[in-house]
Amino acid sequence: MWNLHPSWSWLSGDFCQFFYLISSIVLTYVILKAIQLFKKRQEMVKTLRNFPGPPPHWLYGHAKMIKPGEDVKNLVKWTKEFPRSFPIYFGPFMIFLCINHPEHAKMVYSRGDPKSLITYNFLVPWIGRGLLVLNGPKWQQHRKLLTPGFHYEILKPYVALMADSVKVMLSKWEKLVQENKATSVEMFEHVSLLTLDSIMKCAFSCQSNCQTDRDNPYIKTVIELGFLVFERLRTPLYHNDFCYHLTFQGRQFHKACRLAHLHTDSVIRERKKSLKNEQELEKILKKRRLDFLDILLCAKDEKGNGLSDEDLRAEVDTFMFEGHDTTASGICWLFYCMAQNPEYQQRCREETKEFLGQGKNIQWDDLGKMPYTTMCIKESLRLYPPVPLIARVLNSPVTFDDGCTLPSGSLIGLNIFGLHRNPEAWDNPHVFEPLRFSPENSSGRHPYAFLPFSAGPRNCIGQQFAMMEMKIILALTLLQYELLEDPANPPVPVIQIVTRSKNGIHLKLKKLCSS
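Below the sequence we write its predicted structure tokens.
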């Protein structure tokens, strides 16, 4: 039944020849590419012989050793065994030198080497090519244009907005406690909504009701995207775009990206309408304060060029991700550390009462009156850094203090989680001790021993925003609640794009009597 009509019989032979030709070309390309990758791998393996590390599987590398639940345990274990650095293999071809010592970190992260696009490209379909991913002159241009958005005069009005968002979360908690006095609350669910609400109000002047909306789709989307990106990174078969698009996870990822972009586009679209109606920046300032999105839309370089629509969305998506997901991680683990250490929690509460004792609203100047709280926040960021791993590619060779050299093009991974728990950098590294960060104890510390916001020219542009938000949230929370551990649900830290818990962070809440 499949015989061709006689007039078409010539097609059969020509088609077969064409098919064989295309197949031969594809096969030749695949073989040449495989040879190229194999040679590159052999060169890298030869280079890394001077850097001892855990033995990898010949195909999977260390991918199966860094699955959720095993990743943190192994990274800490390997840091203890190899305190300077160790190679880590994501499959047979992607090889990083994972550094976890302050001196090694200084040698690389003080230089401004570009981000490793091999890893960060997995984020591009989601957050675009914004400040997090860009390299070179375009990164410098964007950094310069965005820096005014984090000036203290811009940040000052955010204090009241952040406090309003905290009060919404605390009101929700009050209802939960009234319904069940021994309630256990999963922190990531509540805090992620809080930080999203906060960033919508602060950076985009948008009165969000996401904290009171059940099953907020954007939060679910962001959590799903974070999980999918890290799953792709640690699964060698997913590294190829074509193969990944054919998988169920690949289809999930692109669907989630579309949902996230719809959210971002709606925020930008509404602001552009507002700017068209106002026409001039001076008129905007008469009605409301300047925010991050205003600065993005109005920013111009020396030649009078602003951000393109594509660049604008990338920066908004990047800030939405980095400004709420990483901060939410830091706050949740801070709450957990407070619950684990009730004596430190009480000292933070007493410090806050000294300037907020009579129901006074928190002000910008109050943030400088919280030295002990700040030490607790930093110690929490040491034990549970929100961004546990970051990657660079060397644009020139580097020779470490132990004499070992890596050539240009090598991939470097900064193991922040391991660095912060490295016994060569910290005494009793697994113990929560806020006084590590007192002025006298910090004065002699290596400047690259504590890197929750990275370091060097590519450090986090929003670190002051994050620190002020953590201070406000912790201070207002501790005035109303005592945070207690839930022995039935201890958290299991896992490394994704941010540091999460495999089973969530469950804490019990005890409402405090008003004084």
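The first helix runs from residue 9 to 47.
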